[in-house]
Design goal:
Elements lengths: L2 E3 L20 H31 L3 H22 L3 H23 L8 H16 L7 H23 L9 H42 L9 H15 L7 E7 L2 H8 L1 H21 L3 E7 L2 E6 L6 H17 L1 E4 L2 E4 L2 E7 L6 H17 L5 E2 L1
Helix pairs in contact: 1-2, 1-6, 2-3, 4-5, 4-6, 8-9
Length: 374
């Protein structure tokens, strides 16, 4: 006889998205980690490139600040390595923020440094949404967004009266600056939109699974099976297939609950679902679901077997269930099942098939249980 050891912490295989309030989902953490490395690489390239250009075009103030900001960037990376994330974030953002203002004031509007405001807004909104426990924007984030918008408009108005301090007579270089800074500013927005889209997609898939799976056993629930039967039976109206529906019911299930407790009853249901799931993995035409309570429905479609072979196959399944021992709290639990079969004939409906299977099931119950009736 086979033995199946199941603990109370069994895998329900329900596909739930387990996230704690205030903690980013795993897929988001992965994207943020990748994004942080990419941002650090871009910042390093920008520090080197901007420093060289400011030095070549005698932009002394910007060159000096770029040197200071480069040291701050190295300090921030060290803090990130030491897992002091907030120190890293504040240092990086403050450095970029001051650099943006100085660059616009000294070089003018045409270089595109003001586009960093877009990146600031996207970053703060993203961080607040994924890290706040209420999953809503805080007053601080609303203030930052409003401040960035006002700053963006203010810098535009300033540059009307004060177009530039340092003049760079190189239109190609000016265009390069504008395109590069615009890409940097909008890349934050694009990256966070992609993360948000991915999170929503995963959440939708998770909710779909939760709606279609039985939370205890992890197999399809009644709703999912009814959808499948409806879809398949519509196809059967034009083509003839060999199909059978089986209703499987655990014998004396109430006695198990009364004797060992409802947790033991749950273990029994999980065990039976595992055996049925294993059968499905062996044969994908063998679809299983928890129909309700201790009752399971099997939809065995498009098989190439005779009626007698199908009955023998289900009887072998019944015997396997009978031979399985469930160990629970140092007790051995044996169960049996009664199975009612209904073989599809062209023109039959889902309702009539299930009704026949259910009728045969209760005939088996009345005849002494632990048998297959067709």
């Amino acid at each position: 006889m086979s033995k199946l050891q199941l603990g109370l912490n069994f895998d329900k295989r329900g596909g739930y998205m387990k996230t704690t309030s205030g903690v980013m989902p795993q897929n988001v953490v992965k994207y943020v980690a990748m994004g942080t490395k990419l941002i650090n690489l871009v910042l390093l390239i920008c520090h080197i490139g901007f420093g060289i250009l400011f030095w070549l075009y005698d932009a002394h103030v910007l060159f000096a600040y770029n040197c200071v900001n480069s040291l701050a960037f190295l300090f921030a990376c060290i803090m990130l390595h030491k897992k002091k994330k907030w120190t890293y974030i504040i240092t990086i953002y403050l450095g970029i923020f001051i650099f943006m203002i100085l660059a616009v004031l000294y070089l003018g509007w045409d270089y595109g440094f003001q586009q960093y405001c877009i990146g600031f807004v996207a970053s703060f909104v993203f961080t607040d949404f994924y890290m706040s426990r209420e999953r809503k924007f805080s007053r601080f984030t609303k203030f930052i967004v409003a401040f960035d918008i006002i700053l963006y408009v203010g810098l535009r108005l300033w540059t009307y009266e004060h177009p530039y301090i340092y003049f760079i007579d190189n239109k190609s270089l000016v265009s390069f600056f504008y395109i590069s800074n615009s890409l940097i500013g909008f890349s934050f927005l694009i990256m966070y939109l992609c993360i948000y889209s991915s999170t929503v997609h995963r959440l939708e898939n998770s909710l779909t699974e939760m709606a279609n799976l039985d939370p205890l056993t992890g197999i399809s629930n009644r709703r999912k099976m009814q959808q499948m039967l409806k879809y398949v039976m519509e196809e059967y109206e034009t083509q003839q297939y060999q199909t059978v529906i089986a209703m499987i019911d655990i014998d004396y299930f109430k006695k198990i609950n009364d004797t060992y407790g409802h947790d033991a009853g749950d273990e029994v249901l999980v065990m039976l679902a595992k055996i049925l799931r294993d059968k499905h993995e062996e044969n994908e035409s063998f679809h299983v679901s928890r129909w309700g309570g201790e009752e399971f429905l099997v939809f065995y479609e498009r098989h190439q077997k005779s009626r007698e072979e199908v009955i023998q196959e289900f009887d072998a399944l019944r015997q396997k269930i009978q031979d399985t021992v469930i160990q629970y709290n140092q007790s051995n639990i044996n169960i049996t099942v009664t199975i009612g079969l209904a073989f599809y004939e062209k023109g039959e409906t889902i309702h009539s098939l299930i009704k026949v299977a259910d009728k045969n099931l209760y005939e088996g119950k009345n005849a002494g249980r632990n048998r297959v009736v067709s």
